[in-house]
Amino acid sequence: MVVDPIKLLDDLTSATVAAHQRPGFFDQRLRRAEVLLPTAELVIAIDPDRAMGFARALPVADHRHAALAVMAAELVGTDPGRANTLFADVEHNATSWSARTAVGVVRMAVALHRTDRRRAERLLRQAEARLLADTPAQTACFAGEFATALAVLDRRRAEKALDKAATRPLSPEEMGDDTWAAGSEQRLMVAVAMVAYSPRKAEQILARVHAPYDRDCLRPRLIKAIAAVDLAHAERLARATTNAYHRVVWLGETAEISARREPARADRLIREARGMAEAMTDGTQYRWSMSAALKAVAVREPERADRLATSIGDVWLSGSLAGAIAATNPARGLELARSVPDKEMRTRLLAEAAQEIAAVDPALAEDVVREGLPSWEVADVLLRMVPVDPDRAARLARKVGHHPPRASVFVALLSTMRG
């Protein structure tokens, strides 16, 4: 079977429209937001004639305007007349733009900047204002995409937009029911976006989270983001805590990221993390600490990591390596995952193993998916499968029970086909 792009586009638009029918909780809205604008891009690239129909099918004006803005931006250079037609309703409703729509408007402004600078500058100013006028959670959710779109034209201005998003005051009235999302989580989302411009500023943004517990919960995600661009900075941030347990876990995770890029750094961090883990007296902390260290070992020496975990004699610890082992030994990885007695943990570890297996043995990964993994975990497996077996990934995606994860796989399939 050969994947049909038009059929896939039908599947994608249907799933994306269905995903936007319900309000959803904050984390659900975040995942849903990941597919709307990419869907709009693919519609305009593959079948521009359905652009208006797709937008009109979206039930909320905010979503409709965001999609129209993105599609219009894609057409400015090749079909300016159609671009203006698509953008007309968006421009007419400038006072109601959300942060999501502001992302599309920035892209439109960047596309227009060469041929109509005055209009482009006006749109940029309006979009910057509307980004900050939305709720704190929405501002945080889209600030990174906003900056990425703007950086094509003016990197310094993009960084300033993130500065403003990071320092936006948060009143109790604004925060409402989204206290976590609008407070600590908001800071982290903007901090991660800032890493591309200034890791130092990103760290400063996280430092504005007042509650130490919240900072410690969020710091590992920032460490991973910084490690992608600056391993030495990531290591310093991992050490910047007085909590010994957190330090050893974060050093282990940094070692895992370092393993292929800077093996010497990874080996040093692994030795340190294992030594610190051995000193842990709390059983749970020992498990998590040693797991972080052995996952780093498994990046280059999976068999050695397996032997070390087995010698300790802890089923949970061995099971935690399932994903790392499965990359080179699928059968052993699945065996380790299935050995864990806790059902919830076992399911998560099977999903991690299946993601690694999907890239080397799609048929075996499909067998694992059929064991009943949750929708988002299935989607993550299929995303790894897309480059090696797109037909299988497309067939399985159509069986995913929830619309946003299903749409995410269709986005990946169509994007891969476009090259």
Topology:
Blueprint: H1 5-19, H2 26-46, H3 51-57, H4 61-75, H5 80-92, H6 99-112, H7 117-133, H8 136-151, H9 155-166, H10 172-175, H11 179-182, H12 184-194, H13 199-207, H14 212-227, H15 231-239, H16 244-258, H17 263-278, H18 283-300, H19 302-312, H20 315-319, H21 322-326, H22 330-338, H23 343-358, H24 362-369, H25 375-385, H26 390-397, H27 403-418
Helix pairs in contact: 1-2, 1-27, 2-4, 2-27, 3-4, 4-5, 4-6, 6-7, 6-8, 8-9, 8-12, 9-12, 12-13, 12-14, 13-14, 14-15, 14-16, 15-16, 16-17, 16-18, 17-18, 18-19, 22-23, 23-24, 23-25, 25-26, 25-27, 26-27
In short:
The protein is an all-alpha fold and 419 residues long. The chain is 77% helix and 0% strand.
Total helical elements: 27
Spans with pLDDT under 50 lasting ≥5 residues? 173-182
Helix content: over 70%
* Helix and strand pattern: HHHHHHHHHHHHHHHHHHHHHHHHHHH
Can you walk me through this structure?
The protein has 419 residues and is mainly alpha-helical. 77% of the residues lie in helices and 0% in strands. It is built from 27 helices and no strands. α2 runs parallel beside α27 (403-418) and α15 (231-239) packs antiparallel against α16. Residues 173-182 have low confidence and may be disordered.
